Amino acid sequence: MKKVSLILLCLFLCACTKVEEPIIKENNDVEAKLTLKGDDTIYIEYNDYYTDPGYEAFNKNQEDVTDSVTTTGDVLNKPGEYTVTYELNTDDSVITKERKVIRKSIDVSENAPYVPVLMYHYFYDDAAGETGEDGNYLAKSLFEEQLQYLKDNNYYFPTMKELKQYLDGEIKLPPKSIILTTDDGAESNYRIAYPLALKYQIPIVWFVVTSWTDPSLPYQQEIINSGYVSMESHTHDMHQAGCSGMMHGGLFQCIAKEDGINDLKTSKEILKTATTLAYPFGDYNDDTKEMLKIAGYDLAFTTEWGVVKPGMDPYALPRIRISDGNSLATFIASIS
What we know:
The protein is an alpha/beta fold. It has 2 domains: 33-103, Sandwich (Immunoglobulin-like); 117-335, Alpha-Beta Barrel (TIM Barrel). Helices cover 27% and strands 23% of the residues. It has 8 helices and 15 strands. The protein has helices spanning 2-16, 140-152, 160-167, 187-200, 218-225, 257-271, 286-295, 328-335, and strands at 33-36, 41-44, 55-58, 70-72, 80-90, 93-103, 117-120, 122-124, 137-139, 179-184, 204-208, 229-233, 276-278, 299-305, 317-321. The strands form 4 sheets. Strands 12-11-10-7-15-14-13 form a 7-stranded parallel β-sheet. Strands 2-6-5-4 form a 4-stranded mixed β-sheet, with no helix packed on it. The longest helix is centred in the first third of the chain and has 15 residues, at 2-16.
């Protein structure tokens, strides 16, 4: 009897005692987060380097996913307002944040008496054992030394539009203004000049022969969209001989007017934003100037030595050829 009673008591106690299982509750209130460090709007001087303050990101599980954030938008070495966009794609959602970067305008109280326009052609990597074939080649180490000097000494780099306005007396440019140009659009421009332009945030104007290159290719578009390379015309297909006894014999000097205009318009159409031309071989005359005007070009550069000054003929502008082997002191003297 006792045994039966004990069994009944156990059954009763078991029935009355409820074992509570742990409750697993999903924390649906936690969301992925993207946070920008620093201010949402940053002001920098016109020639200062821009360094992003950074950001951090976490997914719903509070795991650090900062490395998954992608950024787009460049801050150029030109006065203006720029937008840097940050995007986090995680947990089937996309989070986007933006930061404004405002590069202050330069205060121009004194107008530049002249603007040196430098002329480069090809580059070679001397540290890798390469050598230049002729005087048109420049060692990478020398080019980088020159860019470092210009950056350290706060030079201003006008656009071609600004140079035209300066020529016409419409705007002032800072006394330390300078423009870098390369002719032909050779392979070394992409391999050597372009990475250094990005490193030092110094824009370079490339005069390209459009029958030799295709600016619509993705890697070319990447270069153009960087903001540190602008492609201008070196004609479409007139970088060739054809006028014996005339200056260096460049075809542009004696080509039929209609053919010359069509060539210039073709180059302009391919480049889309071109307003400036560098004469092949530096050859020009009154006919070439007239063709350029009809085709809608604003400026043209020769290979004649000199600096650009207000009031000059916009279709016969001089440049300073930069030669290999010269010291930094020689470079400084040439632009001074």
